[in-house]
Q: What sequence folds into this?
């Protein structure tokens, strides 16, 4: 394989990976939900059904200001005010929004 062929291949692979990551946010959010929220709010179906899509948007607006406030004084306060929430909030939002109780969608495994 010549050098330029492998460079081209590497570029194609890199673009492919970017595309997968972009559409995998809901899956990532589901994983994050199961890891961090399930213990208190039940499985993903139940969790996402707590709110409508519009409500999830509101809860996660301004970097999740509202959902952070909801957890002030709970055992989850440290998580919501920490950097882990900041890093995963977008994925969580995508997952919860996708399956909000007025979305008509149900996660395949919860
Ligand atoms: C340590 C337990 C705990 C964890 C972990 C936790 N929560 Fe909560 N959550 C609560 C409590 C307690 C409340 C406030 C009482 C209530 O409304 O149920 C709450 C409230 C909420 C509300 C508002 C409910 C309402 O009626 O408006 C949402 C939405 C929510 N949590 C989502 C999440 C999400 C998403 C996660 C994971 C990122 C999470 N919670 C993690 C305990 C937890």
A:
């Amino acid at each position: 394989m010549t050098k330029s062929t492998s460079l081209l291949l590497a570029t194609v692979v890199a673009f492919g990976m970017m595309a997968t990551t972009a559409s995998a946010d809901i899956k990532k959010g589901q994983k994050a939900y199961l890891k961090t929220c399930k213990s208190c709010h039940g499985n993903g179906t139940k969790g996402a059904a707590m709110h409508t899509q519009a409500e999830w948007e509101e809860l996660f607006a301004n970097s999740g200001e509202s959902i952070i406030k909801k957890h002030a004084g709970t055992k989850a306060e440290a998580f919501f005010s920490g950097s882990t929430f900041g890093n995963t909030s977008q994925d969580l939002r995508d997952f919860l929004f996708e399956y909000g109780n007025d979305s008509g969608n149900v996660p395949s495994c919860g």
In short: The radius of gyration is 17 Å. Residues 70 and 81 are 11 Å apart (CA to CA). The mean pLDDT is 88. The pocket of heme C is lined by residues 36-37, 39-41, 50-51, 59, 67, 70-71, 74-76, 92 (CB under 6 Å).
